[in-house]
Model the fold of this input.
Amino acid sequence: MTDVAVVGAGPNGLAAAVIMARAGLDVTVFEAAATPGGGARTLELIKPGYWHDVCSAVHPMAAASPFFRDFGLDQRLELLVPEVSYGQVIDGAAAAIAYRDLDRTVDGLGADGAAYRQLMRPLVHRADALLEFTMDQLLQIPANPVTAFRYGIRNLEQGSPAWNLRFKEQFAPALLTGVAAHTPGGVRRLSAAGAGLMLGALAHAVGFPLPVGGSQAIIDAMVQDLRAHGGRLETDHRVTSLAQLTDAKAVMLDIAPTDLLRLAGGRLPAAYAHALRRYRYGPGAAKVDYILSGPVPWAHPELRRAGTVHLGGTRDQIAASERAIARGRHSEDPVILAAQPAEFDPSRAPAGGHILWAYCHVPRGSTRDMERVITAALERAAPGFTDLVVDSRSMSAADFEVYNPNYVGGDFGTGAVTMAQLAARPILSPKPWQTPLHGVYLCSAGTPPGPGVHGMAGYRAAELVLKEQFGLAVPSLSP
Done:
């Protein structure tokens, strides 16, 4: 008999497993794929020697999350922090630049610089308190109510028709809307505005780091720690029923909430099963990975120094595109999120080679190949881009679900990010990680605090399991 069985070796599953193993428990992690990682894998997707991040590539939340801070992530691997956190392409050479330095960003925003500073500075200066608040469930009383209040007021402004009242020009609002668009489903919503403000604050507080070697380096550090404390990882091992795990005292599931219906095989109470069936997924993502013969020839020179680049135009253009996708229509001019890690990490490609990672939102379940649309947008922002393309690989939203069943319909947030579903993820409860089945817990991004490579869903679930099943406290996680 084992103490803990963890299903899924994504960041949350591994966070839970690391905590359990460090508490002295016998832990086994089961992963259906050939390698661990989930949304943080790095693979040679196209040609040997070119290492592409399959999903996540840039990690402000990993750099700042309470779990990874306690885990000492920055001591276990090298995080490269570009001077330019991200850029927002407006049109051609017109772009807004979010520098790691808030004051330098303000200087580049013209007439709206002071308004941007007033909006962001309280969040940037209290980024730790902001993360503590946003990395908990909505039902939790905030430890720092002043920061929570400041964040809430700004969220109400930026998620409502008042979102442009403080601005006079287009650059500052586009900069904010580009990060809000990381949360699909429409940008003028409280949930998207909240995510955008948090990511915007982190752009200045910790930057947008790139792990040397790719996102897989985060996973490798967690697996190494798990094994160092006696835990086991079994890859190529698909769990098809909870009946396979009856020898475990506790089962932790890094899976989509609706997948529990299948694994439970009719054992769930009717009310809980009904709540899972009502759980909703958001728009999907379609992605293209490129191998390039040289760096992207951005029309705006500062974008060469950015790890992350957003394309999509002005705030109104971004909003229109995301609104169409939320209504089930493809956009011919979508918001595109691009990452260029080889500009900073030469280990990602052979000498002289470059890689580019770019995705856009599409309707959930879409099978459409968006390579033509994404390539055309990159060519407009970087004339000559198409001449540098050596090879490419495209993934539709449907392909993402095949890659990882947690990404239902290609939604790699494992569930729509709405205010209602942030409060009830997947159910409204002070213990949303706990299921009605004795000893069975959810620990995926389908539980609080939601999407992102931050490990906090696994952390919160592990904290609960240690207390309820074993009478233990969370152990030290330091290296």
About this structure: The chain has a mean pLDDT of 96. The first strand starts at residue 2 and ends at 7.
